[in-house]
Design goal:
C8orf32 fold; 3 domains; 633 residues
């Protein structure tokens, strides 16, 4: 009888042990089993690649200036796509200024954690050097640490936790922007901020993000943002989800001058060049005169001397190398090359100011100050007689004329630069008139007028050859095979320009009488964001255009006894996104094909994407530009 009781007790204990083995337990104050239960109720797992049970950030700003960011993620993975996204993580950090502490790397499968709950496999943390830095010795303190999960099979749940601590002393303030929705849906997204001492703190929430609230058992300067059952980021992904997704922001900068002083304190001392480098530059500039020519010669000199290193320069934002060191090594990321170019320019009396350029749309991040975001540019100014400033895109290597400032949002570190008055609407109008000549080609003339964000002055300013070549590149996309002879500026203003030109076009009646009026280079279709695909019938995210736009392409041709066998059908569309029109007129032996596209707003809501797509498809359709001409009798 006792033996039977003992067996029964053993079975009960085994059952309890089995039940315990099927419990994920708690981690970071969260009940993982409860989160998993909520995920199964809130989301259709059969339709998802992955679901985040928890996406957490815990940021601690130390009184000594240190910044510790703890990432805690628990994710259910259901497909191979989810494995690629979450199983092998690449974590960038700079070992010269930061420390990485990997706390948790484990996989829940078959009712248990793999490996054991408190164990991190010896092969799971692999420190690698970024490939972009393999020939840049001064940057080899950078690491891209691979965090690899063991025991991965489908489906499974993976937990990851690590902390990157940026050591103090590098800056008198810090800030962050965090978009709360993630690439996949999430049960809980949590952001906790702890600020030690009396460091000033400002916070803001946008687009429906929750306001910060105090944590339960923390001092008053500990805040938490939480959001439950969060849908995935709207698709397709755009370059600025903070414009429309729930987003939080915080800043510990004490004022506009604080960032400016920190930035200048890092940039200015580094932007000095040696006497030997000055001599090399002086020899290069001996035959050069004039502001723009000098600027271009300096950029050419720097471009030949220094290889671009394509890696995120934010890891060195307040510690650029000296200009002399960048020149000596022959390589540099954007910030280091900006410092070198700034030093070279200022050695020749040209003022070079660092500015940041953000993308389209209304900037919602209004905490002042906050570290500037966007592409790094240099604003270049000569003497009073040099005219308006130039803008150099350090990453893209493109020199822009002053009209660039008319149509982009610029941020000078420490203060915002207000845009000059006037419309930034992108306008492009190209008109061509051609007729057959005695030698078998078609010749004629035309005009190109551009303005606002579509201003093409940069393409044509300079020598007469540059004007003709730049104009031809644009005209040739409208009339394939066209050759521009002479191009003359009618007027060039900040943000607007007009050019007239002569052109010659191959005989369209050879071989089949067909020619297609194309879409102008630098026009609407050329400037669509990378996330806009005409094959997408629907989309969840808005379309963020550079600006509102108005584009006209008009081609007139004289028949001179030839017959017009085919022309585009007249068409007019007006919808919630704008308008598109094709007009065909014939008078006194001249046929005019005019195609107009107007989009009066720079942000198109997702529900209006089908309307915008309708307009863009018509603009892209070669049928709206195809003409067939028969030979003369």
């Amino acid at each position: 009888m006792k033996r039977i009781k003992i067996i029964a007790i053993v079975l009960v204990l085994l059952a309890a042990a089995a039940a315990g083995a099927q419990t994920m337990g708690r981690s970071g104050g969260h009940d993982l089993d409860s989160l998993w239960s909520r995920a199964q109720k809130a989301f259709d797992l059969a339709q998802e690649d992955a679901v985040l049970l928890l996406e957490g950030r815990n940021v601690t700003v130390g009184q000594d200036g240190s910044l510790a960011t703890r990432v805690h993620r628990v994710v259910w993975i259901g497909t191979s796509v989810g494995i690629r996204e979450y199983a092998d993580l690449r974590v960038p950090w700079n070992s010269a200024t930061s420390d990485l502490d990997v706390e948790i790397l484990r996989t829940w499968r078959d009712g248990r954690w793999w490996p054991d709950p408190e164990v991190i496999s010896e092969t799971a943390v692999v420190h690698t050097l970024p490939h972009a830095l393999d020939r840049a010795d001064d940057y080899t303190t950078m690491r891209e640490t691979m965090l690899l999960h063991d025991g991965v099979e489908l489906p499974c749940i993976m937990e990851t936790a690590y902390t990157i601590t940026e050591r103090g002393g590098a800056r008198p303030g810090c800030d962050a922007v965090f978009v709360m929705p993630q690439r996949d849906p999430a049960v809980l997204v949590e952001y906790t901020l702890d600020v030690e001492g009396d460091t000033p703190l400002k916070t803001a929430s946008y687009n429906g993000a929750p306001e910060a609230g105090p944590t339960e058992i923390s001092p008053p300067r500990s805040l938490r943002w939480t959001i439950d059952d969060v849908p995935a980021l709207k698709m397709p992904l755009t370059g600025q989800p903070e414009l429309y997704e729930p987003t939080l922001q915080w800043s510990t900068w004490s004022g506009g001058s604080a960032f400016l002083e920190a930035w200048s304190g890092a940039i200015e001392p580094a932007a000095e060049i040696s006497s030997a480098l000055q001599d090399s530059l002086a020899r290069r500039l001996l035959p050069v005169e004039g502001f723009r020519a000098t600027v271009q010669a300096i950029l050419d000199f720097a471009g030949e001397a220094v290889r671009p290193v394509h890696y995120d320069d934010r890891f060195w934002r307040f510690s650029p190398r000296s200009a002399a060191r960048t020149f000596e090594t022959g390589y540099g990321h954007d910030l280091d090359r900006a410092v070198l170019i700034k030093a070279l320019m200022e050695s020749r009396g040209i003022t070079a100011t660092t500015v940041f350029v953000t993308g389209p749309g209304s900037e919602p991040l209004d905490l002042e100050p906050a570290a500037p975001r966007g592409a790094l540019f240099l604003r270049l100014e000569g003497s009073a007689s040099s005219g308006l400033p130039l803008f150099f895109d350090v990453s893209g290597g493109v020199l822009h004329h002053t009209d660039f400032q008319m149509v982009h949002k610029l941020t000078i570190p420490g203060r915002s630069a207000e845009l000059p008055p006037g419309s930034t609407e992108g306008t492009l109008t190209i008109r061509c008139a051609i007729r057959p000549d005695s030698e078998g080609d078609w010749t004629g003339a035309g005009s190109l007028v551009t303005g606002g964000s579509f201003c093409l002055n940069d393409r044509v300013l300079g020598t007469n050859n540059r004007m003709a070549e730049g104009t031809q590149a644009i005209v040739n996309t409208v009339l394939p095979g066209a050759v521009v002879g002479h191009a003359n500026p009618e007027w060039i203003l900040a943000g607007h320009g007009a050019i007239t030109f002569d052109l010659q076009v191959p005989d369209p009646t050879d071989p089949d009488g067909r020619f297609v009026i194309g879409n102008p280079e630098g026009g609407v279709l050329d400037r669509l964001p990378h996330d806009v695909h005409l094959y997408d019938a629907t989309r969840e995210s808005p379309v963020l255009l550079e600006s509102a736009c108005d584009q006209t392409v008009s081609v007139r041709f004289k028949l001179d006894g030839r017959t017009l066998q085919h022309a585009p059908r007249p068409l007019k569309i007006e919808n919630s996104a704008g308008s598109f029109e094709v007009a065909v007129t014939e008078k006194d032996g001249w046929v005019t094909i005019e195609r107009t596209l107007a989009i009066p707003q720079d942000t198109i809501a997702p529900e209006n994407w089908p309307a915008l797509r309708e307009l863009l498809l018509e603009e892209a359709d070669s049928a709206n530009g195809t003409v067939i001409i028969g030979e003369a009798e």
